[in-house]
Every structure is written in structure tokens, then in C-alpha cells.
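Thread: quick sanity check before group meeting

JM: Hey all, I'm pulling together slides for Thursday and realized we never actually wrote out the predicted structure for the chain we discussed last week. Dropping the sequence here so it's in one place. If anyone has concerns about the input, flag it before I start.
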Amino acid sequence: MKNKTVQWGIGILFFLGLIAALSAGFIYYAIHSSAFTIDQPVAVYVDAQKDYNRLLSQLQSTAHLKNRNLFNRLAHHMKYPQNMKTGKYDIRPGMSYIAAIRMLQSGRQTPIKLTFNNIRLKNDLVERIGRQMMFSPGDLLSRLNDPAVAVSFGLDTTTVLTLFIPNTYEMYWNMPADKFLERMKKEHDRFWTHERLSKAQALHLSPAEVTILASIVEEETASRWEYPIVAGLYLNRLKKGMLLQADPTVKFAVGDVTLKRILHVHLQMDSPYNTYLYSGLPPGPIRIPSIPAIDGVLNYSEHPYLYMCAKEDFSGTHNFSATLEEHNRNAKRYREALNRLHIR
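JM (edit): ok, ran it. Output follows.
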């Protein structure tokens, strides 16, 4: 009888052990199995609020989390909700529950590629960048409008836009606004090589002034091959002490870049950006110019041109002239073309 009891006991223990082993195996398999139904990487974001429930909703809606309950139990077991780290994380096909939680918990982010170009105003810039980063447009705008911040980069709140070189940059989504500006300063200094600085110095212009002139050049023509020609024209006028009389600066001063025709009333707009009234360069850029536009100024064409007028074929290119008489003839043809199209 005693032997039977022992045998029964051993059998029960064996059975329980088998159940435990099977359970452990099942759990191991479950937490290491694919947790998401996706066939390409999906980004999820943890912002400064570190809202765990919102993250779960992201995982379900965008990464198609298979078992929310299993993920939730494992995350709490690993104390992840109490140790969330901000960032942008890529959930990849085949990623397991435990691998995903470990990635999130350790803060192993995937860098973003931040791009900005074709930007005119400061508000446009902060909106474009704010849509791609964790910090808000307001966070960045407040810094760009802070004189102390601008001075720390050797600029003022008007010229601070010359800090930005349009390009694509790899960085982390949760980078603070201050660190972002420091990164832009490094990229600015990297762009302004010894060769570029030497060319700017030969023009007796600072990098900021070159950028301001480049912003006018880029607004003036739709053709990149004209950049050096237009730049040379304005440099000729600056050397002679002539007003730049650049139509894009008038549009900027008026606040309407869509103007098809510059009228006398527009030319009377009292603004330091109106180069028909104020000599020299305007106080700041009228857009954030592209790298080709900046290089177009640094590698300007030497020629005698002092005047330019949009071609009457509306191609976006220009007729250039060295004399006022020739310019007036070009301007007459352009006005006649506008009249024929009833553009007022």
C-alpha cells in the first residue's frame, strides 16, 4: 500500500512537472513569437507624456499587435510602463513581444531623416520642422525669436534664418529644440568650408550676407543656370552703390509673393526690405535659399549687366542688359505681354 502511495505521488509530481514544463514552453514560445501582423517596418512614437495606453493603441492600430493582453502582462512584468523612454521606434516584421518591449525599454530608437527646403518665412520653417520632431513649432519659434539665442550663434532674430542650410539630416525624433539648434549650427559651420568662406571674403560679404543675397537670387529666377548671372548683376549694383531694385524684395515687403505685376503703389511700401527705397541688402533673407543658390552667389558670373527683366515668353528666365536704354526696351516688351494677357 505504501509503495502504491509513493508511486501515485511520483506520478502526480511527474504530471505536474510535465504541465509546468509545457506551460513554461508555451509561455516561452508565446513571448518569443511574432507579435505583429505587418510586412514592413512601422513607426511608433513615445512623446514627452509617456502615455502607456496610447502606445498600446498605436501598436494595435498601426503595427497590428496580435495579443494586447499578452503584451500588457509582459510589459508590466518587465516594469516597462514605469520606465518608458521617449523616441521614435521601428516595429519590424517578425519582431517578438519580448524583443519589442526590450527595444522600447532600452530606448533603442531608429533615427529619422529630417528634410526641409523651399521655405520662405520663419513660421513656415518651424511648422515644417515641428511636424517631423517631438518638440512643437512653438518651442522652436520661441527660441528663434529670442535675441539671446540668436546672439549665441553670432546672428540676430532677423538673420537667424541664415543658420539653416536646406538639406536632409539624420537625427533622433526626441531631440530637444536647443540641441536641434546646436546641430543646425554644426551643419552650418560644416557647410561653410574654408573655400566657401574665402569666396565670401573676396566679395566682402559675411556668410549671412551671402545667404541674404542668395535668397533674392533664388526668388528672382526659376532657372538654376541663371543664379550666377543674377548674382553677378546684383553684385555689380552693390559695387556701384546702386539700389538693388529687386522685385522679390518688394513682394516680401508687401507680404504677397504671388504678385504678377509690381505697381507704383507697391514700390512705395516703406519697409527695410524694399530695395527700391533702401540701399544695400535687406536686413534678412526673404526665403531660406537652397545650396545651389548660395553657391550661385559664391561662384557668380562676371559680366557688365546691371538690369534684368523677365522674358516676355513667361519662361521664368530673363533678358539681361548693361544699359538703361536696352533695359527699357526689354521692359516694354514684357509689359506688352502682360497687357495682352490682361494681367494687372
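AS: nice. The chain has three domains: 33-108, 112-191, 194-340. The chain is about 50% helix and 10% strand.
JM: adding both to the slides.
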